[in-house]
Amino acid sequence: MSKLSYFFKRLVKMDWKAMWKTTGLLKERSGKSRLWLMADMLRCAVKYNAGYVDYKIAQMYRLNDAQRATVITRGISNGIVRRMNDKAYWHFFDDKTQFNALFKEYIPRQWLLITPDTDPAKLEALTEGRTQLIGKPLEGSSGQGILKFTEADWARGPEAFKTLLLEKGIGILEEIVEQHPAMASLCPTSVNTCRIATLLGDKRQGIVYAFLRMGNGKVMDNVDCGGMAARIDLDSGKLLTVGADKQGNTFTKHPMTGTPIIGFTIPYWEEAKSMCLEAAKKVPQMRFVAWDVAITPEGPTFIEGNSFPSHAIPQFAAHYPDGIGILPEFRKFIDI
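Given the sequence above, the corresponding structure tokens read:
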């Protein structure tokens, strides 16, 4: 799809009310007029396939043309996914039970598919000896629909609990991951996961980027649920940047725990990288996958793999203070 055709397609679907609200926010932040911002957003949409959310997150109003050309916008990201990932194989990642089954050697936790036919005895067995379980829709992203369940939820028996799970849209019920104490020191309310993206490119194969996602009081660490992210140095496993959320707030220390973010070292980092690189070869038709990796006291484990990686985290302005975005990293692997 050409840049112009993509622009007109997005123009038809544009949420103009949200765009107007965004220009009001950016007017306060940038000191520029709303008219200037609207015109500049449209220019970036045509030239860089950038939506107004891209424009806000990457703070494109402060970048020159050379810097803007290094941002991975929605249009560019969509093109990479279409080119690298055969849609016929997305189901291995989009369906959480298929993912757990295919990558079972990296997922030691117990889990159960929830349908009207789920055996109540198996459900009861999963709850035995546990005080909490995590429930997820079979498909979905951005942490939507993920809920934590406790003993009170299954106190009336497995049949009543199954009914509750189905009413809540839960498709898979899992044992809660116990994260490494060091990871919990950042935010104890969520499992703080490493987003590690592998790319089987024509020029090179390996890890193209990695970020640590941290919760901020909620069960989820996802940035769409109020969480934040910081960039991970691929060689050392240390956090290179401040934590940043989707609203543009930045943190040198976690606001809940006071744990310093810059310089924090991910435990079992080499093992986490090796796991992702090994798993990337299982479905070679899926050449660009973003893996969500939890770090437990015993080592890394997968939470899920993303067939359509979000382009939001890899373009937060706070992660690129010099204005040079992540697109040059992708160009080491593929031609864009």
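The longest strand covers residues 205-214. Try to locate this feature in the token string yourself.
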